[in-house]
User: What shape does this take?
Amino acid sequence: MKLKYIILSTLLCVSTLLASSKAILKLDTKGHTAMIADIIVTKSGDIISASNDKSIRVWDSKTGDEKRKILGQIGSDSGEIFAIALSGDERYLAVGGFLAGDKREDKTAIRLYNYSTGKLLHILKSHTDVVLDLSFSEDGRYLISGSGDKTAKVWDIQSLKVVDTIKHQNHVYGVAIFKDKDGYKDEYYSVSVGFDNQIILYSLSKNYKVKSHRLNHKLMYLSIGANHIAVSGYSKKIDIYDKKLNHIQTIQSDTKPSGLKYSKDGRYLIAGSGTSPRNINIYETSNYTKISTFKKHTNTTMAVNFLDKNTAISGSNYDAIYIWDIQTTKVKQKIEGVGETVWSVGIKGDRIAWGNTDDCSGKNCSKFQKSINLKDFNIQNSTSNTQNYNRISTTNGSYSLSHRAGGEYGYSDAILDIKKDGTTIASITKSATDGYGHSCYGWWGEYIVSGGSNGYLNIYDKKGKKVASLVGHTGTIWSVALDGNRLVSGSSDQTMMVWNLGEIRAKSEEVRIYPMLNIFISKDDEYIVWSKSGYFTSSVGGDKYVGYHINRGSDKEAKYVGSDKYFDTLYRPDIISGILKTGSEKKAIAFASRTKKVKKVDIASSLPPMVFLLSSSDITTKNSSITIKYMIESDEPIKDIIITQNGVKLDTRALKIKKDKSKKTLTVTLEDGENIISIKARNKYALSDEVLVSAYKKTDTIKDIYKPTLYLLSIGVSEYKNSEFNLEVAHKDALAIAKMMKKQKGKIYKDVVVKTLTNSEANSDNILDALDWIDREVTSKDIAMIFIAGHGVNDEKGNYYFLSHDANQERLRRTAVKWVELEDTISNLPSKTILLADTCHSGSIMGKRRDITSAVKSIINSGSGSIIMTATTGSGYSYEQSSWGHGAFTKSLLEGIGKTKADYDRDGVVSIKEIDLYVTSRVKKLTKGKQKPTTIIPASIPDFAIGVK
Assistant: This one.
C-alpha cells in the first residue's frame, strides 16, 4: 500500500504554482477515481464522500445516485482532499487536504462551506503543512484539525480563530473532541494520534495535556464512541481506551485496520482495511467480539461509517462505496462510477487494445479484453491474439532493464537498473516526488520509458538522465505500449493516453509533452476522446464523462460544467481525426478550418446557467398542486426557461412563476401518481443541467385512466432513385412498425393516427410535409412517435442528412432531408416524443462518412427531453437480413412490443425501459455483438407503457 499521505510534507516543498488556466479539463465517471478518504452520513441519510480525486460528492443512499458536488480550487498537482467534517447542525462542512492556491498557506488551509448550498464561506489559515484529519465537537462550537506540521489545532467556530494548539513530534493523523462532565460543568477534551506513536488526551477547558500514551507503532486512525476511544495505525491491532485514557484492551486483527468508526449508539465499531486480506470488520463493543466481516473490497479501505443502526458503509481506493447489512454483510446498495482501471494496453497502427482486469505478471499485464479502432471508434468486446498488438520491450540489443527494492520507502520497484551485457551501468531511483516506483517500463529506441504513481510518466536516456516528462495522467501508470513514435499508456485514473514521442527528438533540453489524445471508455462502451484544447469526439452519451472544473479562486467554491454543454463548438471529430494523421493538434486545427470554422471557447467566461433548488426535491402530497422554489445563477441574461412534467413541456407563459431577482417560485398542477418536474435554463452560451423534483400525488378516489392519442410518422426507404443505395427491408420495417402500433388502438391509446411514407412516397417534399403534419396535430396530452429507416450521411461540414428517395449525394442540401428539420420538429412538440432511428445501414453508400452521433446530440442539447432510440452508435453499421424479414433493430422492436417479449415483469405491459433493455440485448445477440443500439431516456421522464398484450 502506497499511502500518498506519507509524503505530502515533501510535496509542499517542491510543488509548482497553480496553473493559470481557470478551466481545467477533468474526467467525471460519476464516481470517485481515487482513494476515498472520508465518508459522512447526514441526518436525512445522504452520504458525503471525499476523495483524493479532488472532489466531494453527495449521494442518495437509497438510489445510489449523485445529488451534487462540492468543489474548490484545484491545480495539476494540488487539490486533493484528505478529510471532511460536518457540524452537528449540518450548517458547516469543513474540508482539508493538500489544497490548491497561489500561496503555500492556501494549500494548508481549511475550507468552511455552507453545506446546504455548497458556498465557500471562510478560509481558516494557521497550519504550515497539509491537513490530515478534521472533527467538530458535537455541539459545533469547536473544530479540531490534525496536520503534517506536527500539531493539532482547535478552532472556535464563532470567532474562526485558533484557541489551542496540541503539539506532537510527528504528523498528526487523527483528531476528535468530546464533552465530559467535570462535577456539574461540561468540559471539552481533545484526543489526537500521530506518527510519533502517541495518543494525547488534552483538556481544552484547562489548556493542558491530561495524559498521553505511547505505543510501539505509528498511529493514524481514531474514533470516539459513547464510552471508549479506539486507535489504530501501522499494526494489525486496535487499542481501546476509556475516556480518561486508561488502556482497556487490544483487538488483534487479520489486516491493518485503516479507518475506525463507532456507531452513534456506541454498540458497534467498524474497522477498515489497509492490507490483505481486504476485510472490513465489525465488533460488538461490550467485549469487542467480531460479529461480521465484509469481503467485497479489493483495495485499501479507510473510509468507513454507519448509515443507521443496522447498516454499514465502506469506500476504498479505485473501488465502489458499498452499503451493507452489519449482521449478514449482504450488499444493499453499491455506488460506483462507470470507469475502470486500465491495467494493460497494446497498440498496432490505429487500433488499441486494453484490459481492465488485474492479472499482472512481472511489470506488464497481459490480458486484453477490448479494442478500439481510432479511425471509426468501433469498439470490440474481444480482441484477437495479444501477439497482434505491440507492447514495450525491457530489452534492447545488449541492454536490459530490471527493477529492485530501495528508495526512500523501500518499495519493491523503487530502483530501475539499466544493464549492458548483464552489468548495471546506471540506475534510476524513484522518490516521493516522481512516482515512488517503476510500475511499468521499457525501451523506446535508445531511450527508456517509465511510469509510476500519481501520473508520473518519464523518458530517460541510457545514463538515467530524464529527458522528458509526459504530463497528463493523475493515477498510477500500469502499462505502456509502442508503435513507432506513438506511445499509448493505461492508468488507474481510468484513461488511456496517446503520445507523439517524435517531439522529444527535436529538442535538446528536457521537455514536457502532453498527450495527442486522451481516451475514456466506460464499462458499457460509451467513449470520449479529447485533445489538449478540449476538442472531442464521443459516443452519444460519452461526452458527459469529461468536463471543466472552473476555478474561481482559493476563497470561492469551484464550478463544474460538462463537455456536453459545449457540443456546438467543441465536438469536432474532424480535428480528432486530424490529430491522429498529423500527430499535432495545431496542424489538425489548421486543416479542419478549411471546411468548418474552428471556434475558440473561453470556458471560464462562457458558462451556462446554474439552477439551484431551494425547496424539497421529493414530495408526497394529496394536494392538487405544489410550489417549487428555485434560483438561477448566470453571468449572462437568461434566454429561456424549459420546464417539463413527466416529459411534457409546460407552457411557461401559463404557469404561475413569481420572480424575485434570481429567485423564482413555480406552481405546478399535479397528475395522480408520479410526477417528475424538470427545470432547465438557457443563456447565450449553453443549456444548464436540469434540476428534478419528484412529486407523488396520493388520491383516495379511482379515476378513469386517461388514454392519449398516439401520432406515428413511419418512414422507410429501400428503393432510391440511385439504385446503388438500395436496401432490402427498410420500407418493410416502416410498414411493420405502423401495423404493430395500430393494434394498440383502444388498449393504452385512445386512438392511433398513422402517416406512412415508403420508397418513392418518401421523397424530401413529402417527408417535410409529414413533419409539418405531426407538428400541427400533436397536443400536450398526446404521444408522438417518429420512426425512420434508410440511409443517413454527413456532409463535409459534419451536418447529418436522411437520404430521401430522391436524394443525390452530390446535392444533399437540395435533395435530402437535413437532420435539423427533424430536430426542430421534435424539439418543439409539446408532448412525450419518441424517435426510433435506423439510418446507419451498410451498402454502396459506405464510402460516404456516416456518423449519427452529432444528429442525436443535437436533439438532446435542445432540452426537449425526447426519448431517442438508435439502431446503432456512432459510425457503426445497422444490419439487416432477408431471413429476418427486417433489420435487427426493427425485428427486436416487433418482438419486444408486438409479441410482448420485453414484458420482463409479466404484468402484460411493455414499458419504455423494458423495450430499451430488450432491444439492446436482442440486437447484440442477433448481430453477434457487431451492432450496439443506443437509447436516451431523460431522467425527467418516468417509466411509462408503450404497448400492452
